[in-house]
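Predicting holo structure, S-adenosylmethionine bound.
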Amino acid sequence: MMEKEWNDEEWQELANQLSEPQGDAGIKTGEMMASSNENMIFRTIDLLGLSVDEEVLEIGHGSASHLNALMRKASGLEYTGIDISLTMIEEAKRINSALIDAGSVSFHLSDGLHIDFSDNQFDKIFTVNTLYFWKDPKAYAQEIYRVLKPGGSFCLAIATKDFMEKLPFTKWVFQLYNRSMAEELLSSAGFSIQSVAEEKDIAISRTGEQVERDIIIVTAGK
Ligand SMILES: C[S@@+](CC[C@H](N)C(=O)[O-])C[C@H]1O[C@@H](n2cnc3c(N)ncnc32)[C@H](O)[C@@H]1O
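Done. Tokens:
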């Protein structure tokens, strides 16, 4: 059966849901993101290089369907997730209830401007596909820097501006970045850029097809 063509209103609604999933449509968006972005999320987790007893912060985890795999990367990991979407916080809690009960995982609703944790708290911080939606990117990069331990590292993963601007929904809500813009944002917050992986990623489109996309994963240190 042919997929129905979407109009601008429907694409804009998709952009809104991707930036902050809400309600039943938000739950579906969370499921779609988890499968579509799985490779990119696991690649970012690999580059984080998690080791024993580290405290990890993820910003914008969505439904957080990747946590069982993340927690197996090393023993004694403590994971904290923050997200601006109450729907995603509830989904993440439902999907990861066993890990929460075990005491190693927690999720917290965030205002997207402040990170309500202490200075120098986390060994590793990562975020996948959220930079497009940061409300005050410079101040938020400084917040991430503040809560990262000296010697810790931060992995920032995005699909590139050149790729994203061809999509039918990124003219709303999204702020797109190329490699130099992302590096400049992190450098200006005090981070030292350690590496930038420029890769081809296979995502799954809304209609279930495989789509090759260009991604970058910046690893930055404090
Ligand atoms: C496009 S989804 C990506 C979800 C998941 N990381 C992935 O790659 O599939 C963006 C997620 O980040 C959240 N988000 C957007 N801006 C945020 C911010 N400033 N702080 C925390 N979460 C944010 C949204 O609510 C949503 O769950």
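The chain has a mean pLDDT of 96.
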